[in-house]
């Protein structure tokens, strides 16, 4: 496999050209061992494969009887070690081959393992004898004084024999087989490296996107905080002069500054009514700002919820009569006391009743019903958790009307701040879209839930559940 002279111009080319190849990474040791064992079984010549750093990767050989015998002799063992070390240190020539002679007359053939123009390791074939050898050389007989010449000659002649041209063919066969294995290993390695590079690039892009999203989230969170502070500040600054406007309009209407004509009284009454509407809107903005910033605290006391409901109905009764709407309160039995903020709960039900009247036609009915239930009966509770949790009681209040109803796909959105079911410029119903958002936050601040019960084809039923917190009794 050859590469051109063109410089890498992409990440892929940089990856493939700059990859440091190692023999042990391109081919598994098990596959390499299986290859050299098959060659040893075919040709009878021992084969060993070494990595570039000299690490033995595969070995298909058995100790020759002569080597075993010589290694039992002190000087012979030293000579054998020097011979094996010399064969391992032998570097092949430019053609990829080299030979190393043994004192016994045997030969080692060193074969270079090259791939893609890089030296990855080497294989050593041998020891083997040339076919013409029929006697022990003098170097073998002189290797150790204790050597038995006859035994040494007999063992030497049992060593495997091969002609040099045959060994060259075996070496070529080994190189070809290794080249195929290395090509497959290189392909798998490149695939793995490319996959890892893709994963790293994807991870980098994902990290950058997450960072940008986090920065955008932090920015939006800061803008939301600034918005809440702005609304709170502006609403507070508006409420003070607006209270004066309402107060002075009341005094004018009562004739404190002098008698007014009927038309003047109507104008003053209009100023007062619109001022009170504006005051309700500003109060809602202030409450929402406090709820979002977490500065609104609940003053929990022993609260009679039935009294709270009666007070909310009585407060809106004049408005209900003006619109020809009947508001009915139905309480099932005595309700237990709550530890709650009575004024905030009054605000919750004032908003719900006013919302029900706003979307109801004339001569319709808004019905409030209250009862004691087991906490967790609502559809938003997890049934599995409610079975495991200790039983608790709660008070459920349902506010039902027979108005236009709320479509199922927007029931969860009506609790969002400033959301309007009808957001067109010609919408029939007024309001800023804060009431239900305040309701949800106040109910959840009491540990309760609020949701819209399906009531097709018309009408709406808001269900509020407030848990009863039992005070610990003194011992």
- Summarize the helix and strand pattern as letters: HHHEEHHEEEHHHHEHEEHEHEHEE
Largest sheet: 5 strands, antiparallel
CATH topology of the largest domain: Heat Shock Protein 90
Any low-confidence stretches, pLDDT <50, length ≥5?
A: 1-17, 377-386, 423-428, 470-475
CATH classification class of the largest domain: Alpha Beta
Q: What is the total domain count? A: 3
- The average pLDDT is 82
Share in β-strands: 15-25%
Q: Give the structural class.
A: alpha+beta
Helix proportion of residues, in percent? 40-55%
Describe this structure in words.
Helix 3 packs antiparallel against helix 8 and helix 8 runs antiparallel to helix 9. About 50% of the residues lie in helices and about 15% in strands. It folds into three domains: about 150 residues, 2-Layer Sandwich (Beta-Lactamase), CATH 3.30.450; about 70 residues, Helix Hairpins; about 160 residues, Histidine kinase-like ATPase, C-terminal domain (Heat Shock Protein 90), CATH 3.30.565.10. It is of the alpha+beta class and about 475 residues long. It is rod-shaped. It has a five-stranded antiparallel β-sheet. Strands 7-9-10-12-11 form a five-stranded mixed β-sheet. The protein has 13 helices and twelve strands. A hairpin with a 5-residue loop joins strand 3 and strand 4.
